[in-house]
Amino acid sequence: MTKAILELKNVKTIVNKGTANETNILKGINLKINEGDFITIVGTNGAGKSTLFNVIGGNLLVDEGQILHNGEDISKATEEERTTFLARVFQDPKLGTAPRMTVAENMLLATKRGEKRGLKLRKLKPNMERFTKLAATMNNGLENRMTTATGALSGGQRQALSFLMATLKRPDILLLDEHTAALDPHTSLNLLHATNERITQDHLTALMITHQLEDALKYGNRLIVLKDGQIKADFVGEEKAKLTTADLYKFFED
Fold first, then answer.
1. Residue 42 CB neighbours (<10 A)
2. Residue 68's beta-bridge partner residues?
3. pTM summary value
4. Average pLDDT of 27-39?
5. Whole-number Cα distances in Å, 27 to 11, 91, 129, 211
6. Nearest residue to 41 (alpha-carbon basis) of 8, 80, 71
């Protein structure tokens, strides 16, 4: 039986509470994420996609409902507490990496995600071969920049590093928040291919927000359509495989 690794039960979020601008963003989200799911998420601007990730990641606490991780209620857990089992890659390549530290130093930091640690770096040299091999899987020359300060990398290389750091210490949940949107088409395609390979080979559980319907159809075993703070469709397996962009466009019509 497939194991539910994360579950959202009737999750609601409200912003600007008690003011004239009070707005319900998520309106009773029910979502069960099974171990090994790779879920692509589409929806218009304002549909609640980023809010959903913020709620899962702990950046935003729920106003109603529950979030369960392996059956345990984590609704009130902080963002830091959730880093023990969750990793996230943001749209901006500058987020998620330390610009003055080298590629290898950033990767070493990633091995300590979710742990209490001091500022002193340890065991960098013994890990160099492993880190270099991992960097080579990105197919963008990152393996040749291991001693380069991260701030000097191209946007594509820096985002590839962010992805490696998020997956280096296997997370229970990986959130990909439009992680290729700021890249040129060729670089985006390359990172998406590397993303899919890593998720597939390591059997990671991942959610990926994308505005590219073709990518939503191509990658993953599930596709969720968010609209007006609600899940309007959840396509799985063969049902997803039969979808076309025309089918998805129907959800964007008023």
1. 24
2. 7, 73
3. 0.93
4. 96
5. 7, 25, 48, 21
6. 8
